[in-house]
Design brief:
Length: 169
């Protein structure tokens, strides 16, 4: 009887824990698109949802409008659906938002000179650093010159000459 009650409590606690963890996920999914916002054509709705994942919310930091709960994100999702309903292609919808809010609004910006410079500069610096390290490692080391080995007799003669010159001064 006691084991049975403990098991029931453990199951109840586990279900409560899972419910608490899953509640934000279900709440976020439910607030993204209400039935009156969804497009009647499933292909158009799929396009709208894909575009909403590719367009950044201008209020939230690095969050697509599909996941944002900000009012501007709701307006942007409505604008996406309106543009698709009007017959715009995905590229035209992206261009509309890029012209209105700037390239920053696109999570995958178009390839241009500014984006090439942004992505190419670190790569160029890395390559230049590697070339510099290669050049330095291949360069002949400059160090102190090694004196030629002298024989003991030569050393004694040079020492005597030094001592004699020191005495004469």
């Amino acid at each position: 009887m006691i084991v049975r009650r403990l098991t029931q409590w453990m199951i109840l606690w586990a279900l409560s824990f899972v419910t608490l963890l899953a509640a934000p996920v279900f709440a976020a999914q439910g607030s993204l698109v209400t039935p009156e916002q969804a497009l009647s054509d499933p292909n158009q709705e799929a396009r709208a949802q894909n575009l909403a994942r590719e367009i950044r919310c201008v209020v939230c930091e690095n969050e697509p409008v599909a996941l944002s709960s900000a009012q501007i994100a709701l307006d942007m999702r409505k604008a996406i659906r309106e543009r698709i309903t009007a017959g715009d292609s995905d590229a035209q919808v992206r261009r509309f938002f890029a012209e209105r809010y700037g390239e920053f609004v696109l999570l995958r910006p178009r390839l241009g000179l500014d984006t090439l410079a942004l992505w190419g500069t670190p790569l160029a610096l890395l390559l230049m650093g590697g070339a510099g390290l290669y050049w330095v490692s291949r360069r002949k080391e400059i160090g102190p010159e090694i004196a030629p080995e002298l024989q003991d007799d030569e050393v004694r003669a040079a020492l005597k000459e030094y001592q004699l010159s020191d005495l004469n001064d």
